[in-house]
Design brief:
alpha+beta; globular
Length: 87
Amino acid sequence: MPQVFVNLFTHPACACGPTIDLVKGLGREFENLKVKEISLVTPEGRKQAFDAGVKTIPTLQFEDGTLLVTSTEITRKAILEKLNGTL
């Protein structure tokens, strides 16, 4: 299966721990799912977030540019539905 890449935008001040654990856990569960955590602490992370249209954290960005925003949208079910057939 082809590799699937997602970006997870975070910040240390965010209470994102459970969301980070969920997304990284899916990355371990599905070998072809590659998760890149991008911290908004760095200038490069802020630029990437700006370019992606990220307005809040946590935000999960898929390869097609689709964003899941906040911990209420970033659920196992939502991620698997979005990636249906690619994992």
